Amino acid sequence: MYAILLKAHIGLAVLALLLTLGWAAIVVAASAGPGRSSRLVYIGAMASTGLVGVTGVIAAFAGGFAAMAFPWIGLVAVVGHALAGVRSRRFLAADRKGAAIGAAALQVVLLLVAYAAMTARPF
């Protein structure tokens, strides 16, 4: 059961990263506010990142990693991704493209750092 949960967590993490990269590309290429297809990518990125957080917490407690730094790094990444995502969407809707790009870049950086920390396991 734990192996299946871990594979689901890793697959969702890759999906969240790809959708977040797609959202960042849409923000960079956008000429006006968010369109219908960009909303779908945004919702997919936010939902998949939330599911990564949920499966990560379950995996941490099931695998005995709850006392380590993994849940805390994941929590910071998920909450930071959500806050930056909301900001990027609102900035894009308000035609503040520079701020929207910065917030979308923060989303990508948070996920890349969390992914690298979880993969390298330096602690």
Q: What do you see in this structure?
A:
The structure is a single chain. With 123 residues, this protein is mainly alpha-helical. The chain has one domain. Helices cover 85% and strands 0% of the residues. The chain is built from 4 helices and no strands.
How would the blueprint of this fold be written?
Layout: H1 2-29, H2 36-63, H3 70-93, H4 97-120
Give the tags.
4 helices, single chain, mainly alpha, 123 residues
Classification by helices and strands: mainly alpha
Tally of DSSP helical segments: 4
CA-based gyration radius: 15 Å
The biggest beta sheet reads: none
The count of DSSP E runs of length 2 or more, i.e. the number of strands, is 0
Short description:
With 123 residues, the protein is mainly alpha-helical. Helix content is 85%, strand content 0%.
